[in-house]
């Protein structure tokens, strides 16, 4: 729990450092992308810190391509 709070505090500090710089440049798209990526990174790291099972992206790729592979292999038999 302490680690999750530390991750949240670090994310807030990073946001407080970089978002004002982006506001000065009036770069709205960069602020949105930065905030989105920071939010996703923070959420994933907090999940890991709280020992929540987070599936690998490779699991999704395997789920999608295994039937396709089996279909193609069936032609070679």
Can you walk me through this structure?
The chain has 77 residues and is mainly α. The chain has one domain. The protein is 84% helix and 0% strand. The protein has 3 helices and no strands. The chain has helices spanning 2-24, 28-49, 57-76. Helix 1 (2-24) packs antiparallel against helix 2. It is elongated, with a radius of gyration of 20 Å. The mean pLDDT is 94. The chain crosses the membrane at residues 6-23, 30-50. Keywords: Membrane, Transmembrane, Transmembrane helix.
Topology:
Layout: H1 2-24, H2 28-49, H3 57-76
Helix pairs in contact: 1-2
The beta-strand count equals: 0
Gyration radius, in Å: 20 Å
The succession of helices and strands, N to C, reads HHH
Structural class: mainly alpha
**For the residues shown, what is the average pLDDT?**
94
The helix content is: over 70%
């Amino acid at each position: 729990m302490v680690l999750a709070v530390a991750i949240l505090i670090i994310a807030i500090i990073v946001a407080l450092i970089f978002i004002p710089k982006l506001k000065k440049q009036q770069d709205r798209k960069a602020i949105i992308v930065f905030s989105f990526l920071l939010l996703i990174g923070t959420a994933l790291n907090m999940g890991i810190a709280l020992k929540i099972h987070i599936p690998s992206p490779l699991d999704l790729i395997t789920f999608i391509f295994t039937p396709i592979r089996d279909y193609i292999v069936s032609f070679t038999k």
